């Protein structure tokens, strides 16, 4: 029997063999992988091993050649890069990559025809880290809605993913957004959010404020007041202490200040815009062992800047 030898990388060390194989052979069911391990058509260093074997430095996985042949017949890879998609990289090291996400691109794929940010980052990582791992795939470490722009953090190593996930509650996450109405003073919202039951056939999820959901805490501070189509609007800074789906959009609407142009959570017949403006502006990071800067900041998209300057007469000499 012919075998293909695949050397493991530094990101695979101490990972269970079955988890590495799941990434390496995604088209093969896990129970089939276990059968191949028992039969010896999958080995490590030419020896049979158990499914819970943990990878060590310089391990080589031996795969019966027909397993990879079948895999490649079923898999068609696409290649993307952040440069091709005009994505701004705010910061990148061996552990994390921070992107300034544009409006209108999904972090995760929501339909088969679109290209997600996660796919772009994973494709780019695969091209630049060919020999580092068989199983590690970089992924987003927190959420950001499709129509919210700004900071999104992706893992570039297991160490980075683990540290970020374990310490995310210590981060300060600041957003900037435009709401309808005159927010006269700073407010602290503590509500409970749960999912609205989906309509049959709909893939879109919304949330609502209720007494039975998960706690959501948001600080809202007014920065600048103006008018748009004779309606009062306020530029606000939002600091979220929890990370619920549509948290800022749902809480703002519930407290009487929905995001200007938000057709899901607001009703702006007179003052409607073609989009809402919400941007993940700044991430404050505690001291850390993976060399992330204490402050990460994402510049505003041009259309957001134009709306502030042209429609709201905002003076950019003021600090956001």
Quickly describe the structure.
The protein is an alpha+beta fold and 320 residues long. The chain has helices at 17-24, 30-39, 65-74, 117-128, 158-167, 247-254, 302-311; strands at 3-7, 42-44, 60-64, 88-92, 96-101, 149-155, 172-180, 187-195, 207-209, 214-228, 231-240, 278-284, 295-297.
Note down, in words, how this protein is organized.
This protein has 320 residues and is an alpha+beta fold. It folds into 3 domains: 72 residues, Structural Genomics Hypothetical 15.5 Kd Protein In mrcA-pckA Intergenic Region, Chain A; 77 residues, Pseudouridine synthase (2-Layer Sandwich), CATH 3.30.2350; 141 residues, Pseudouridine synthase. It is 21% helix and 27% strand. The protein has 7 helices and 13 strands. Strands 4, 5, 6, 7, 8, 9, 10, 11, 12 and 13 form a 10-stranded mixed beta sheet that branches. A 3-stranded antiparallel beta sheet has the order 1-3-2.
How is the topology of this model organized?
Layout lengths: L2 E5 L9 H8 L5 H10 L2 E3 L15 E5 H10 L13 E5 L3 E6 L15 H12 L20 E7 L2 H10 L4 E9 L6 E9 L11 E3 L4 E15 L2 E10 L6 H8 L23 E7 L10 E3 L4 H10 L9
Parallel strand pairs: 6-12
Antiparallel strand pairs: 1-3, 2-3, 4-5, 5-6, 7-11, 7-12, 8-9, 8-10, 10-11, 12-13
Fraction of helical residues:
10-25%
The pLDDT mean sits at: 88
Number of strands: 13
Number of helices: 7
> Any idea what the CATH architecture of the largest domain is?
2-Layer Sandwich
Measured distance between first and last alpha carbons: 65 Å
What is the C-alpha radius of gyration, as a whole number of Å?
Answer: 24 Å
Which CATH first-tier class of the largest domain would you pick? Answer: Alpha Beta
Fourth-tier CATH superfamily name of the largest domain: Pseudouridine synthase
Uncertain ranges: 71-77
Give the CA-based shape.
Answer: elongated
Order of helices and strands: EHHEEHEEHEHEEEEEHEEH
Secondary-structure class? alpha+beta
For the biggest sheet, the summary is: 10 strands, mixed
Give the percentage of residues in beta strands: 25-35%
In CATH, the topology of the largest domain is named: Pseudouridine synthase
Count of domain modules: 3
